[in-house]
Every structure is written in C-alpha cells, then in structure tokens.
Recover the amino acids of this structure.
C-alpha cells in the first residue's frame, strides 16, 4: 500500500526535472543578460554565510558575494530563499539561475550540477587557545579536544587512532562552544568560523586555528550544460580573488583569510 | 511498513559498549557510596535540634529535589570551570550525581528515622543503653532496614539518570550509543541494544543490593522476613 504514493511522487519528480531541463532552451547566460536580472539561490539561515541583519535585510559572506557579482555584471539581483537540501533542486527546476550558498564541491554533486572554480573555502580545523603552543598533530597529544558528536570533524579525528588524541564529545555546537568559553576545553575541532567566534563571545579566551584538518572548496553551482555561464563566472572569480575583494568579504564575516594558495 | 534491522554492524562494536557500561556502573557505584554517606549525615542533620544545622540540610534537600539533574550537572561542569577549577568530565559527573542522590537519600533515611516508634527508644533507655548505642542499634539500623527498598530503587534510578552526563562528554553508555548511531546511522538498533544493556545493569544492581541486604541485615538472613 505504501508503494503507490511513493511511485506517484517519483513520477511527479521526474516530470518536474524533465520540465526544468526542457525549459532551459538556448543559453542561460544570454537569458540572464537579456532579462538584466540574475536569480541566486542562497540559504539565509546559516550565519555568517547567509543571514538576516537587525533590519531583516539579507547579509553575510555569500550575500555580499552575490551582490558583488550582480553589480560587476550590471544585473539586477533577486535572491531565491533556499535551504541546504533544496539548493540543487532550485537550479534543476529553473527556480534560480545559480547557487551561492556554502556549496562544497563533492563528486556526488558534480554528477548532477556543474561547479565553477572555488570562490571561498570552509576550513575544518583544530583551534586552541591563543596561548597554547601547538603547531602540529604531535603537539596536540595529551590535550583534550572538544568536538560535536557525529560531525565530520568527529569522524575524521576518531579515525586518527595512531595520533593518540583525546576527544571530549558534546551533543551539539552550542554545548561545545560553552565548554570552550567556560574553560573546560582549551582546544576545539570545528570550522574555522566557529572557532573565531569563540573569542568574540569571550575576549579573555580567544581561540585561533592551529592545525588544519581539511579544506572544503566552496563553488558556485550551475545547472549542467551551461559552459558559457561557467566560463564567465570563473573569469569573475579569478579577477576578484586576485584583487582581494572576495578575500575581504570572507574575512569580514568569517574572521580569517582565505587559504594563501587560493588568493594567488 | 518496511522495517530493516541490522544488528550485526552494531554488535561488532561491543568493546565500546562494554567500556560505556563499565563507566556507567562506576558512576553509579561512586555516587551510591558517597550518596549514602551524605544521606545518613543529612538525615541526622535534618533532625538536629540546632535550627541552623537542620535549616542548612533542609535547604540542600529542597534545592536539589526541585531542580533538574541536567541543570545541576551544567552548573557544576561550567560553574567550576568559570571559577578556574578544571576537572575531567568523569569527576564532574560523579560529583554532580553524588550531590543529587545525596539529597534524595537524606529524605528517604530521614523518613526511616521518623518511623522508629518513640516507645522503642524509651525501652532502650530503660535498658540503660548509652545514647550512642541507642542511635546505632535502635534507631539507625532498623531505620535503614525499613527504607532499604526505597533506597535501592533510588540508586537504580540514579544509574539510569547517569545517562544525561553524556551531555558533558562523559563517555558512559548513552554517550557511546549516541556516537555509534551517528557513525552507523543505525539509530533504532543502537538504542534497542542500549536499552537491553540498561535492563541488564539494573538487574545486576538489584541482585547486588539483595545480596547486600542479606549480609547487613541479620533479621532478613535468619527469618527471611522484611522488617
């Protein structure tokens, strides 16, 4: 009995996707330029990348990136509100033209959409109190590292058995940050962004990234088969990485600079 | 409904579950021992004729019994750290559970003390027993024997409540379960297994308390009847 509504939904989904692709005639870049408007899908509920300010205006690093892009191309900007899970369907069904929303590049996603080159990066780090001397994994031995249970950081550090790390697992980011702010933990494994925010909350305990776990490239997502648009966006990203504008936006919201190799 | 249970991937992690269960038992054991000591002293204090002593014990009991255990745990864990005192999660968990169960034990043992009939004490006085002898033989042991079932169920509840210390990163049984299910995405199987382990732990504790009762209460051993 359960099978019928499921297959009906599947058919409906396939139709929607099919409609989306057939509606994409000719060339998306020409369409955008003709309409003088670009529709960008951004999640406004993931500070500091996308959020609402006190006046309920969108702000954040992805928001400013989108605004800069629209301004440089001389286009009107329309934000398409999205959530993490609906980012990709939004461009597949032609509700938005591109995605700028902390979209990290993964092989699975590359099967269904195209990526531009990276415009920013999310860094997964072990951050410690400023006063803690730690430069390598070796120095972290014997220190307690706070981490949120089940996150990518937890999984990666748990798998480093031969590095003898001591992990203290908390159920969510909020408790983990409280542990760091209150002094229960001198090291945390999380995103560089969250680590930098601890010092904002409690200036007497400033954390700084010490050891890099992994960097996730963030790129603009584009519907498959739009090479001219991708090329145009790549050109824009290269220019703005070189002139430092993208780095400036990133630093303003995330508190640290983009990796050196991205900026050059 | 299409339920697909796969216990194999959970059961192969049995060493971590074993460590977690062991830590849960350790927490329960420490808190039971220290909690009983606090309970006896607290009950004596609460019945004291010094108004300040009985007031202090009363405030302790009411403060603990009217606040959630999780809040008490956070208070000790983050509170101590803010004061610059840093203890491991295990020590804090054991301390918070002890403070918590101490209050409940105080109240249970006080009820036992109150249940000793006045005539029994007067009879002991009539037999020229000293005050200390009366307190030890005529008041305390009969009182504890009377409330022994309530005490043991409180300690089993404490063992189950120790699951919330996973919040402050004590790696007890529930923390292990949370980690395993976040890694295997087999939440239902993990918690079924953990529920079974908790039942086994409860049974172990009950059996232990039953044996202990036989050892420390001669009446029960000889007559087989509760007081």
């Amino acid at each position: 009995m359960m099978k019928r509504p499921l297959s009906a939904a599947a058919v409906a989904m396939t139709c929607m996707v099919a409609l989306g692709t057939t509606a994409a005639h000719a060339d998306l870049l020409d369409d955008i330029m003709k309409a003088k408007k670009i529709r960008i899908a951004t999640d406004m509920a993931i500070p500091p990348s996308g959020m609402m300010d006190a006046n309920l205006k969108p702000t954040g690093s992805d928001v400013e990136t989108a605004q800069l892009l629209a301004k440089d191309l001389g286009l009107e900007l329309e934000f398409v509100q999205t959530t993490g899970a609906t980012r990709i369907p939004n461009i597949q069904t032609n509700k938005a033209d591109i995605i700028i929303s902390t979209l990290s590049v993964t092989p699975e996603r590359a099967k269904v959409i195209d990526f531009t080159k990276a415009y920013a990066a999310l860094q997964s780090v072990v951050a410690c109190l400023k006063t803690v001397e730690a430069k390598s994994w070796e120095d972290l031995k014997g220190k307690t590292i706070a981490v949120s249970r089940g996150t990518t950081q937890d999984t990666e550090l748990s798998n480093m058995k031969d590095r003898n790390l001591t992990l203290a697992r908390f159920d969510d980011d909020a408790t983990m940050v409280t542990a760091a702010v209150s002094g229960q933990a001198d090291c945390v494994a999380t995103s560089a962004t969250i680590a930098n925010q601890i010092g904002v909350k409690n200036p007497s305990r400033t954390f700084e990234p010490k050891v890099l776990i992994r960097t996730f490239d963030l790129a603009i997502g584009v519907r498959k088969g739009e090479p001219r648009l991708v090329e145009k966006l790549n050109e824009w990203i290269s220019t703005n990485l070189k002139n430092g504008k993208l780095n400036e936006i990133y630093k303003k919201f995330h508190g640290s600079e983009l990796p050196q190799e991205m900026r050059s | 409904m299409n339920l697909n249970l796969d216990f194999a991937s959970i059961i192969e992690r049995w060493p971590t579950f074993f460590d977690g269960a062991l830590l849960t038992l350790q927490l329960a054991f420490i808190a039971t021992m220290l909690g009983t000591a606090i309970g006896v002293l607290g009950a004596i204090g609460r019945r004291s004729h010094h108004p300040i002593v009985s007031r202090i014990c009363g405030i302790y009991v009411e403060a603990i019994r009217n606040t959630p255990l999780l809040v008490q745990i956070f208070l000790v864990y983050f509170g101590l750290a803010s004061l610059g005192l840093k203890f491991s999660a295990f020590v804090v968990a054991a301390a918070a559970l002890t403070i918590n169960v101490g209050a409940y034990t105080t109240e249970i043992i006080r009820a036992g003390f109150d249940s000793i009939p006045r005539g029994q004490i007067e009879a002991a006085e009539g037999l020229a027993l000293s005050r200390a002898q009366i307190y030890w033989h005529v008041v305390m042991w009969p009182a504890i024997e009377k409330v022994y079932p309530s005490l043991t169920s409180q300690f089993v509840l404490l063992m189950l409540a120790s699951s919330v210390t996973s919040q402050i990163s004590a790696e007890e049984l529930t923390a292990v379960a949370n980690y395993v299910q976040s890694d295997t995405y087999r939440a239902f199987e993990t918690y079924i297994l953990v529920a079974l382990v908790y039942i086994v732990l409860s049974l172990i504790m009950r059996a232990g308390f039953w044996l202990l009762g036989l050892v420390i209460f001669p009446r029960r051993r000889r007559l087989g009847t509760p007081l």
User: Anything to note?
Assistant: The mean pLDDT of chain B is 93. Chain B touches chain A at residues 1-2, 77-78, 81-82, 84, 86, 89, 166-169, 171, 175, 178-179, 182-183 (CB under 8 Å).
